[in-house]
Amino acid sequence: MRLKLFIKYDGTNYCGWQRQKNALSVQEVLEGALEKTFGEKITVVGCSRTDAGVHARMHVSSFDAETTIPVGKIPLVVNMYLPQDIRAFYCEKAADDFNARFAAKEKTYCYRILNQEHNDPFLSRFVWHYPIALDVDKMRRGAEFIVGEHDFKAFCAAGSCVKTTVREVRELKLEKNENLIEITIRANGYLYNMVRIVAGTLCYVGNGKLEPEDVKKMLEEKKRVLGGITAPPEGLTLEKVVY
Amino acid sequence: MRLKLFIKYDGTNYCGWQRQKNALSVQEVLEGALEKTFGEKITVVGCSRTDAGVHARMHVSSFDAETTIPVGKIPLVVNMYLPQDIRAFYCEKAADDFNARFAAKEKTYCYRILNQEHNDPFLSRFVWHYPIALDVDKMRRGAEFIVGEHDFKAFCAAGSCVKTTVREVRELKLEKNENLIEITIRANGYLYNMVRIVAGTLCYVGNGKLEPEDVKKMLEEKKRVLGGITAPPEGLTLEKVVY
């Protein structure tokens, strides 16, 4: 039967989601745990190929397995074989043709910036520590241009090849609690490094290196060089996938 | 001059605050960073000797050093020599006879329990994962007996020797947000493992192995065996020190 497994992970110690030859991926570790759980080799399809160091609070995989374990108890068994930085938390039976990657209709990411002089060991695994003061109101004005259906070519890492660079950003929200700035983005899909380029560009708007209107110019001229840096992976977390 | 340095640390990778022969302590790492900062050997006095795996959001040290670095900039320099799981965040000049350990008037600890079926990689370094349902109202009723000045002999690990086992608990608060239970305790001083025995005992009240009134009985009969287990170190954080 086809199963749909939900996991969370702290991506600090992994080369990303996708299996690689010379580095440890979340996919490889998960497939190893599933092999121990079901007694057969399992290949999973993941909803999103997160980069090295990126985290997920909800990551969904689909795969086939035959088992007598009640579906609701599968996370408990899989967790016995997973390291502490990856945890399964939910499993359900899916339609036979369900594909966790292609069936995803919408994903939400959150990029977190800790905007204070010194980093915080309680947060540092999951934030970008940025010690220079950021003007969140200016960042919000820049963020407004990103919402909607646009050609996001300027927000895509060089060298990636996709059929179309048009995506629809349905929500882009900036919240500040004490010194933690959370940039939450909800879209039907993402280009390679898109959220990290959005975060790095909004950061440059916040520190004064760019103006809010430069975000509009990036979208119009479709030039990556007009934007800010690609923000580092540790601040990024995949928060939610909708099917 | 005498200095008062404030640090935070994730204690996961340390044998505790106090310097030890065959294991890495926070004190050893901090003294190493201070030696590089000031160019001379520094010995610090810490406000609290946290156990292996216990964390601190505010830990205060006193020490003597001669330097031309402006006092407010010392954390910035010390942080260059500290690992990411220890961060200095404030420094000030103290009175010549200030002693971070003996001058402490009150300390606040928080013990965090994640009460849900599966652990959470975003929280797991700083919580005790406890999968069995806990009755927080019962725990609160047990906690009420602890507040006040009492002989806490029953809440002290065997083998520790102190002049008196009387301490004053000024506040003991239980809060639950989603599945996270926070036990906050504020006292003039603590016995060895006291907070972890309080947390483990309240946990046994919450799961039904003990009744709230058993906490009263522990205090009256002064017997450690009447209580619950010593809760594991990862859930404990020193939150605040008052001078």
Features:
alpha+beta, ten-stranded mixed β-sheet, 243 residues, 5 helices, homodimer
How is this structure best described in words?
2 copies of one chain form a homodimer. By secondary structure, chain A is an alpha+beta fold. Helix content of chain A is 22%, strand content 29%. Chain A contains 5 helices and 10 strands; from the N terminus they run βαββαβββαβββααβ. In chain A, strands 1, 2, 3, 4, 5, 6, 7, 8, 9 and 10 form a 10-stranded mixed beta sheet that branches. The mean pLDDT of chain A is 96. The A-B interface holds A 8-10, 55, 57, 75-76, 79, 84-89, 117-122, 124, 126 and B 8-10, 55, 57, 75-76, 79, 84-89, 117-122, 124, 126.
Short synopsis of the structure:
Two copies of one chain form a homodimer. With 243 residues, chain A is an alpha+beta fold. Chain A has five helices and ten strands, in the order βαββαβββαβββααβ.
